[in-house]
Design brief:
alpha/beta; Rossmann fold; seven-stranded mixed β-sheet; two-stranded antiparallel sheet; 9 strands; binds S-adenosylmethionine; SRR1-like; SRR1-like domain-containing protein
Length: 282
């Protein structure tokens, strides 16, 4: 993030982002190796805490099972991990994991998943415009690929990709879907994020259709598996689901829905939950 860059602050609401007004960003703080070491120790502690909680075992079971069911592995563990290695991963909207406990546990969960499914950490790209310099360095030291540009979630995939977007704004989900909006590509999109059904419940249908049309169209044909959460981690993983788009289900949508998907811009959204990239003024 360039120093002095302007973007919108996103605050946590009830498990979902809300956008504040435009403000100047603070200068990123200097990155001390000792501080990063402490940070990494805290991440390791979080990983160990999650490992000791039963709900992690349920996540592991469900995610391994779902990967197998979607043809990316078999019931035999070795085969699952071999196939899972083919997965790319993109994590948007993790938040400030050095200062925010929820974000730290979400990062710890991602590391646990990679370890279990034998996905190389380097296959995961990370981006959040609020990351500090120190957090970017910590992520690189952990092996992640840290993106330097705000893609606004508009990432075109070319192979099965897990999008890890916990408690992110609707525009991010909608943008991911738009960029990969075809019968051939969408089945390769796997989301771990806010329940789409929950989003639908909390919104007026006409506003969902008007502002987030890809999300709205996908909700009826996606396959959502709710991920459990222990009371202790309610704030961290509430309303989280694994969401997939099986070919047989998305084929139910009318052909016209796939033709020339128009890029979303959200000019008229009153409560936009995404930090947009800076655009050049002519
Ligand atoms: C409600 S917060 C969730 C943070 C964290 N995952 C949690 O549950 O506490 C939404 C996050 O989305 C991030 N975000 C906003 N626009 C983004 C963008 N264009 N790309 C990636 N992340 C973005 C915000 O900076 C913020 O950290």
């Amino acid at each position: 993030m360039a120093s002095g860059e302007e973007w919108q602050i996103v605050r946590r609401g009830k498990g979902i982002a809300r956008t504040g007004k435009r403000v100047q960003t603070e200068k990123p703080e200097a990155s001390e190796p000792s501080e990063r070491l402490r940070g990494k120790r805290r991440i390791t502690e979080a990983v160990n805490e999650l490992k000791g909680d039963n709900f992690w075992l349920e996540w592991r079971e469900l995610l391994s099972g779902c990967l197998a069911a979607s043809g990316r592995g078999s019931s035999e563990n070795k085969a699952v991990s071999k196939r899972a290695c083919l997965l790319d991963c993109v994590c948007y909207g993790l938040g400030n994991f050095s200062s925010c406990v929820s974000a730290r546990y979400q990062l710890a969960m991602l590391l646990l998943l990679f370890d279990t499914l034998e996905i190389p950490v380097g296959q995961c790209s990370m981006y959040d415009p609020v990351f500090t310099v120190s957090e970017c360095e910590t992520l690189r030291e952990l092996g992640f690929t840290v993106l330097t540009e705000n893609e606004e979630g508009k990432r075109a995939i070319c192979r099965p990709t897990l999008f890890y977007l916990i408690h992110c704004g609707k525009a991010l989900y909608n943008n991911v879907l738009w960029k990969n909006w075809s019968l051939q590509v969408l089945p390769n999109v796997i989301v771990i994020g806010n329940s789409f059904l929950g989003i639908q419940e909390r919104m007026l249908q006409r506003e969902l259709e008007r502002d987030y049309s890809f999300l709205s169209d996908a909700i009826g044909v996606c396959e959502e598996t709710s991920l459990p959460c222990s009371p202790r981690f309610l704030d961290v993983f509430n309303d989280t689901a694994l969401i997939r788009f099986p070919t047989d289900k998305i084929s139910e949508l009318p052909d016209s829905i796939w033709a020339e998907p128009v890029e979303p811009h959200y000019q008229h959204c009153p409560d936009l939950e995404i930090i947009l990239k800076e655009r050049q003024l002519n």
